[in-house]
Amino acid sequence: MRLPLLLLLSALVLPQVGNAAASRPNVLFIAIDDQNDWIGALGGHPLAKTPHLDRLAARGTVMLNAHCQSPLCNPSRTSLMLSLRPTTTGIYGLSPWFRTLPEWRDRVSLPNHFKAHGYRTLATGKIYHGGAGGPGAGGAGKAKKKAADSATPAPSAAPEFDVIGPAGGVGVRPEKKLIGPTPMGNNPLMDWGVFPHKDEDKGDYQVASWTIDQIKRAPKDQPFFLAAGFFLPHVPIYVTQKWADLYPDDDSILPAIKRDDRADTPFFSWFLHWSLPEPRLKWVEENKQWRNLVRSYLAATSFVDAQIGRLMQALDEAGLADNTIIVVWGDHGWHLGEKAITGKNTLWDDGTRVPLIFAGPGVARGGRSSQPAELLDIYPTLVELCGLTPRTDLEGLSLVPQLKNAATPRARPAITSHNQGNHGIRSERWRYIRYADGTEELYDHAADPHEWANLALRPEHAQVLAEHRRWLPPIDRPPAPNSANRVFTYDPATDGVIWEGKPAKRTDPIPQ
Ligand SMILES: [Ca+2]
Ligand SMILES: [Ca+2]
Predict the structure, then answer these.
(1) How far is it, in rounded angstroms, from Cα 487 to Cα 342?
(2) What is the DSSP string of 289-336?
(3) Does residue 235 sit within a domain?
(4) Contact in structure between 122 and 161 (CB atoms under 8 Å)
(5) Is residue 242 situated within a structural domain?
(6) CA-CA distance, 278 to 266, in Å (whole number)?
(7) Domain total for the chain?
(8) pLDDT in tens, 36-75
(9) How much is the average pLDDT of 185-207?
(10) 458 alpha carbon to ligand 2 midpoint, in Å?
(11) Ligand nearest to the CA of 257
């Protein structure tokens, strides 16, 4: 007799939730992995071809000065989904998955909050690091097993989303690496270039197809929070000739660099990306891979743009465009030769600046805001745009004032942290960086958009330095238990760094 009782209860309870929820807008939440500012509407690369994202930007508002809270997948995404800084959670590395930490096990994430307000929540591709639902909740069984083997408590049993779609990822790949062995461990992910295959066999194409299917089949009486996480232009970057041909096969596609750019940056900056699989500029130049990498990255960006175009078309065809908020974000930037490196894990604009575009009900059309914005602002922004109960435990600030009027000033700069004690502070005009050993950088974006001239030691900028230092995060926790991968600590007493468990010194040669 349980079933009739349940039905009766449902009949009593659900309509109220349903009525309030049914009037709320849908959310299409689109993530792009390792996508820097090489997007037409952002102007990060003069040749970038992203017609669909540009169209979305014209339909909505683009945050031109948006920055991640950590220049690495897991900490950036954890911060975004919880609206908490890495300096508050202590999550700086690729591990741990936050649900394994007792402190955050039952924390209400962004999709949890939407579900509690009657939304149907769905996800496909890479939303959390380790899968749509995160490594502990249907993403990767490996991480779950690892957690069970150690003393770590099991992650929360509550799923992150009601429905989990295909995992996406690389999809079809060549039999062996296209670019040959790479330094610092010959990581299989360090690969890029053209090889013949079909778009339909790529993980991102399948993620888009599944998302389109969900849009077509969406129930009419319940709003959705639908998350699609694209993998490219993350490495390995495999593209077909069609996408590569959007870009010239010559050096005009290379980003502007300054040869001795790191002569005026503190040595400590190298510890942020000390020994990593991502090749340095020296290697990609010597091995004639720089242009191939840049062209592959641009081609993959255009491919993902086309997948986002497919989603926009599906919303239009389903008649849902006017009642759906679209947000597109990248999890952190990516260097392609600037400051002598490729990859992530830096506190410069190349490592922190990300696409952040909103469109839909409540968002001004054609808005372009140069006010600083942070990825952890997405949570409170979507809560306000959809009329959900506000939360008082979030560290982000709603961007709704800027989405209504792009010029609305914002007092707070954007803050990025990479391990304890290393912070980048980005205001409308300046970038300030402070490393754990106390060394500093300062750049004037009005005069120096590439951050080539470090002004931190110039006495005339003492006031600007002081204004930015006061935004250093007041909470700055050490790495959480079981932190691993790209995690390092600094001991001021010995001036020693422990990089991924091993000592590193200033006198050591820079690994490359
Ligand atoms: Ca990433
Ligand atoms: Ca420089």
Answers:
(1) 18
(2) -HHHHHHHHHHHHHHHHHHHHHHHHHHHHTT-GGGEEEEEEESS--EE
(3) yes
(4) yes
(5) yes
(6) 21
(7) 1
(8) 999 999 999 999 999 999 999 999 999 999 999 999 999 9
(9) 97
(10) 14
(11) 2
Token pair in block for residue 453:
């001239």
Residue 140 to residue 128: CA distance in whole angstroms: 11
| Kind plus residue range of the DSSP H or E element containing 443 | strand 440-444
Domain containing residue 108: CATH number: 3.40.720.10
Judged by its nearest atom, the ligand closest to the C-alpha of residue 233 is: 1
Residues in the chain: 512
Q: Could you say which ligand is closest to the alpha carbon of residue 127?
A: 1
Helix (H, G, I), strand (E, B) or coil at 425: strand
Active site amino acids: 73, 129
- Cα(31)–Cα(42) distance, integer angstroms: 16
Q: 17 near 223, Cβ under 8 Å?
A: no
Distance 331 CA to ligand 1 centre (A): 5
- Alpha-helical (H) ranges within 436-498 are 462-469
Query: Residue 330: inside a domain, yes or no?
Result: yes
> Of the given ranges (9-18, 261-270, 497-506), which has the lowest mean pLDDT?
9-18
Q: What distance in angstroms lies between residue 454's CA and the mean position of ligand 2's atoms? A: 6
**What confidence tier does 19 reach under pLDDT thresholds 50, 70, 90?**
low
Give the tens place of pLDDT for each residue, 249-308: 999 999 999 999 999 999 999 999 999 999 999 999 999 999 999 999 999 999 999 999
Tell me if 488 is assigned to some domain.
no
Span from the CA of 245 to the centroid of ligand 2 (angstroms): 33
Distances (CA, A) of 60 to 32, 179, 382: 18, 40, 14
Continuous H helices in 23-151 = 51-59, 73-82, 86-89, 110-116, 141-149
Residue 396 near residue 376, CB atoms below 8 Å: yes
Taking the centre of ligand 2 as the mean of its atom positions, its distance from the CA of residue 441, in whole angstroms, is: 9
> Could you tell me the two tokens for 297?
């990255």
Rounded to whole angstroms, the Cα distance separating 328 from 319 reads 20
Q: For strand 496-499 and strand 502-504, is the pairing parallel, antiparallel, or unpaired?
A: antiparallel
How close is the Cα of 266 to the center of ligand 2, in Å?
10
Domain that holds residue 277: 19-407
- For residue 33, how far is its CA from the centre of ligand 1 (angstroms)? 4
